[in-house]
Amino acid sequence: MRVLRVVGTSLLTAVPTLILATFIVFFMQRLIPGDPAVALAGEYATPERLAEIRADLGLDQPMLVQYWDWIRNAFTGNLGASFLSGQPVTEQILSRLPLTLLLTLFALIVAVVIGLPTGVWAAQNAESRLDRFLTTSATLGLAMPNFWLGMMLIIVFSMGLGLFPGPGGPSLQDDPAEALRGLVLPAMALGLVGGAEICRQVRSAMIENLGADYVRTHRAKALPESRIVWLHALKNSSLPFATIIGLQVSRLIGSAVVVEAVFGLPGLGSLVVDATNQRDYAVIQGVVLVAAVVVLFTNTLVDISYRLLDPRIS
Amino acid sequence: MTATPTSSRPKVAAPLLEVEDLSLSFRSGSGEARVLHDVSFSVGSGEIVGLVGESGSGKTVTSLALAGLLDPRTAVTSGNATLNGEPLLGRGSANRSDLPLAMIFQEPMTALDPVFTIGSQLMETLTHRQGKSRKEAKREALVLLEQVGISDPRARLASYPHQLSGGMRQRVMIAIALACAPRLLIADEPTTAVDVTIQAQLLELIKRLSVERDMSVLFITHDLGVVAETCDRMITMYAGRIVEQGEVEQVLSKPRHPYTAGLLAALPSPETRGRTLAAIPGRVPPPTQVVTGCVFAERCDHRADECGEPQDLAGSTHQVRCVRSAELTLIGAQRLEVGR
Amino acid sequence: MSALQKGPDEAAGGERRAPLLELRQVSVRYPVGGRRRLTAVDAVDLRVHEGETLGIIGESGSGKSTIARAVLGLAPVSSGKLLWQGEDVSGFDRAQRREFVQAVQMVFQDPHSALDPRRTIAQSVREPLDVMRRGVRGSRQEVAMQALADVGLTAEIAGRYPHQLSGGQKQRANIARALVTRPRLLICDESVAALDVALQAEILNLLQDLKVNYQLTIMFISHDLSVVAHLADRMNVVYLGQVVEDATTTSMVDQPRHPYSEALLSAQPHVNLHEETNRIVLTGDIPSPLDPPPGCRFHTRCQHAIDRCATTTPELTEALPDHWAACLRTEELYGLTGRAKELI
Ligand SMILES: Nc1ncnc2c1ncn2[C@@H]1O[C@H](COP(=O)(O)OP(=O)(O)OP(=O)(O)O)[C@@H](O)[C@H]1O
Ligand SMILES: Nc1ncnc2c1ncn2[C@@H]1O[C@H](COP(=O)(O)OP(=O)(O)OP(=O)(O)O)[C@@H](O)[C@H]1O
Ligand code: SF4
Ligand SMILES: [Mg+2]
Ligand SMILES: [Mg+2]
């Protein structure tokens, strides 16, 4: 019941956020220098031809009208057609979304699998040599740019050791198994940095909790230390953990753009990069909307988990 | 709502807890700070012993050392402590679960795990320490909550700590302690954070449980009034050393150490209205300061040359660490017509 | 108020000067989520006379600090009047307001968090003057140093930072800061609660000295009965936002006329054991102020409660000369001289 209410309120607050996000993008992209009509018709098209194209695309309408038309259609699932190819944007996005989502999910798994245990170990051995090694590694990890890490991974594991396929593998639809294998390195490239961040956050939350009075109580009643750390202190650290996961999802989706480019993956990232180069407003708007929906959905999940994890939040 | 007749309980011969020459230092970057100096005392079976002293005198660290709760990376202990013949010091945190020892703390707000229910915290103690099944543990948990005076225990099992008042939380802490089947309960200022009316309830409860379960209590407090009304014997600590110990009755009515007398004289009450209280000037020497003679000398009104010599804890039942104690007449509390 | 239930002053013979500070039917309601209101202080009447030390005592959450905050204008007073020397504070003009603000100062409970860790003690103590831009800077410094000397802190300590001071020294510094504006009323909210007995004794002695030297009137808020009884001339016992008993300290301690005060007094542990240690142990906790019991607010925990107590709200009535209690059964229980337990 409580959960239902939370979902309800989260969704209600999500709608204005979505509208605001798309609104901003809608107007911001108009600020990118260059004209879609010119991009489409070429530098030397006649003014009449350009006007015709603009009318076709609806670009001659006032901006607010354009926005209203677009948002109305978006609610029915129709994101319009690409300015360039004329293909429906919804279709284009749907064909590329699974890959990006899978990549983000894998990256998140990598981040958690690396960040959570190392964070806990570092906290358990705070100020020891192990801790210093882990925190230094985490700091280094945070400093590494995704694309550089991606290239390093390609050089070592793909070109060097030949363990994983390099850039430009088959698409998910053609050869799922090979495509998944192709996701391993990009997921690592994305997830390692997230893992470093999670490690640091988990460490500081766990250090605080392991020094808390209630932990002393658990120790006084001689509970096994493993239970105190991995059950009690960890559950108490779950709020910062859930928060960082929520932040990571937004960040991963953003970074996916870059990493997809490095690995030549046909995901949303490469779609949006191409669209930006060609001033394909319809596609950019569509991708931003979808990304915003994913991020808001994750935040809703995080919100719900808060309430489930901490009884003090009502 | 019950009236408490002050009861006198039979004194027991064999001590349950014996502490001998317990010393403790904390290691840090800037060196070692010695916070306990050869602390020796005992607690008899079923006895309630009060441990008093100003803030920083070493009451809490004494209890933490006994309960094995000090961080071995920074705390260095030496000396001996046995509970029912079993050694307490130097065993890892691993094998403490069969020791009949439990502890409760000052802050009922933070001492309970905020994200687990009362029931699960109580039951996990029973399943882990006494190997009970979940079903047995639940039954036992209800009994324990009942015993500590929680009304509607069944509903309370599902409550979270923040849903309880301070007094109730402290009762739950006591129930968790009882789940350890302790012969010795260490209570570190269990009533300092609650109101007097709740304090009165908790003191009653602790006294009752001590009698019913023949449980000894090491009762840490800075409130001499609480000691007077709760404890059989008392220990006064100053700067990490025991300076006086004996029957509460004797120590309070005829203190033999100027520090204990000073604490008594500093107490405000309706009778002291309009008068200046006898404060104890100065401060407790920090743990890093090396003192050869009497540690209290700096602040003592009765200081003389011989106070510069090292002092021993002397006496049989009423022990005192003060060379001049025999020649001093110190004023104690007016223990009119007492009957504990 | 009916003819029977006059304020203590009118009863004590009319001609007395107006109290320095008076609260008349003051209520404070805090908004707490939704449309609910928490009545932290409920129609409280309170008087502090010039030169007097008034003790306010009650359990946690009874509204003691809220009363203090209401006086300082820091709590939302939803009804009632605050009178300063007989004049309504709400009608003050700017100059009068300024004077009032300087005349009422407060010392808080926690000696540690009340001082800015990045300022020296002298700077912190001077701060109230700096804020009010009183006099030139040099003279402000002089006033601050004098106040520090008066609370027993040397010039050397004045140059230190809070973390270099002991708890007692910090509390002295807090008191000095309250003194620089030359207040007439000093409100001490649990000002010795965080201190050890020895330090507590020092601060209590200091307050008594300052009271004479600075001609202070003190409102001393505490949950510790022995401290209040030591310091205060008069005591007000509050329970769930209401004053339940108001009497001189001697009268209150010797012959409480409200079952709650009696229970509080008897719950106080004491080193001097007397013959009669028939302790009254109240059952249960203080009820939530969000949903206070009807009738007498104490009836849920009162051992003398009868049916009527749950429906009729008792008002402060004079039970003994200049001794006021809000209990329906005062006379029945305590008669004119005896104590409750002799009747049961
Ligand atoms: N973990 C620690 N590391 C270093 N020093 C410590 C540590 N814990 C306590 N101390 C020091 O040990 C001394 C004794 O502290 P302890 O907490 O036992 O005092 P206490 O008598 O319990 O005081 P209080 O009444 O304030 O609780 C103090 O000087 C304190 O600063
Ligand atoms: N800002 C606020 N908003 C809502 N409720 C408040 C606020 N401040 C205080 N209260 C409530 O008002 C009531 C009285 O609080 P107050 O702090 O005055 O009590 P007190 O007698 O000073 O207690 P203590 O002894 O714990 O200091 C309490 O129930 C408290 O929860
Ligand atoms: S009015 Fe009734 S309930 Fe209230 S204090 Fe008096 S006897 Fe007790
Ligand atoms: Mg302590
Ligand atoms: Mg308060």
Automatic annotation (TrEMBL), chain A:
The keyword Transmembrane applies. The chain crosses the membrane at residues 6-27, 101-123, 143-164, 241-263, 283-302. Residues 97-302 form the ABC transmembrane type-1 domain. GO terms for cellular component: plasma membrane. It comes from the Bacteria. GO terms for biological process: transmembrane transport. Pfam families: BPD_transp_1, BPD_transp_1_N. The keyword Amino-acid biosynthesis does not apply. It is found in: Cell membrane. It is a multi-pass membrane protein. CDD domains: TM_PBP2. Gene3D superfamilies: MetI-like. Keywords: Cell membrane, Membrane, Transmembrane, Transmembrane helix, Transport. Belongs to the binding-protein-dependent transport system permease family. This is Peptide/nickel transport system permease protein. The lineage of its organism: Bacteria, Bacillati, Actinomycetota, Actinomycetes, Propionibacteriales.
From TrEMBL, chain B:
It is a peripheral membrane protein. SMART domains: AAA. It comes from the Bacteria. One of its GO terms (biological process) is peptide transport. CDD domains: ABC_NikE_OppD_transporters. It is found in: Cell membrane. One of its GO terms (molecular function) is ATP hydrolysis activity. Its main location: membrane. The keyword Magnesium does not apply. The keyword Cell membrane applies. GO terms for cellular component: plasma membrane. Keywords: ATP-binding, Cell membrane, Membrane, Nucleotide-binding, Transport. It holds the Pfam family ABC_tran. Residues 17-264 form the ABC transporter domain. Belongs to the ABC transporter superfamily. This is Peptide/nickel transport system ATP-binding protein. It comes from Nocardioides albus.
TrEMBL record, chain C:
Pfam families: ABC_tran, oligo_HPY. It comes from the Bacteria. One of its GO terms (biological process) is peptide transport. Residues 23-265 form the ABC transporter domain. This is Oligopeptide/dipeptide ABC transporter ATP-binding protein. The keyword NADP does not apply. Signal peptide: none annotated. Keywords: ATP-binding, Nucleotide-binding, Transport.
